[in-house]
Amino acid sequence: MSARSGAHPAPLVLRPLAFTAEEIREVVALYASNPAYWRAAGEYDPDDIQAANVEADLRGEAGTEGGEVLLARDGEGRLAGIVCLLDRHPKDGLPWIGLLMVDGHSRRAGLGRRLAGLVEERFRAEGRSGVRLAVLENNPDAQAFWGFLGWREIDRRQDLAHGRPCIVMHKGLA
To answer: Does an H or E element contain 21, and which?
Structure first.
């Protein structure tokens, strides 16, 4: 899967995480480039992200029924982002984005928008009516990002994994 944008002519390509030591190292570096997110989320110490913990968490995501972890690489093969997807949420039957993160050194360069577009394009091509995600209430930058992309708030509740207050957002794909 790839997409082109006028601002970024090189395509982004999504491929499943193969869990090689090199890929895990790259994901740890990507995570470390986003310390503000990890401070808000509380899942990792942004100054000491452990590869074994990242790998275990991502294996859990990929091992969930309908779960998938995809790496986004630029035209030169560099890791540009990661996205964790759930094909069908058990409560609403819709696909969900569990995590979408780009390299923090490339923020505000359109990578997140392009990566979100790839996910939307994929689910639209599958004939899905919409897609959902949850944004932490204490992450106003993420709320603004998704709102800018046309996502709308439909609920507020705690996330199942950690009990954090979240905003559930939806985007129709029809």
So the answer is: helix 21-32
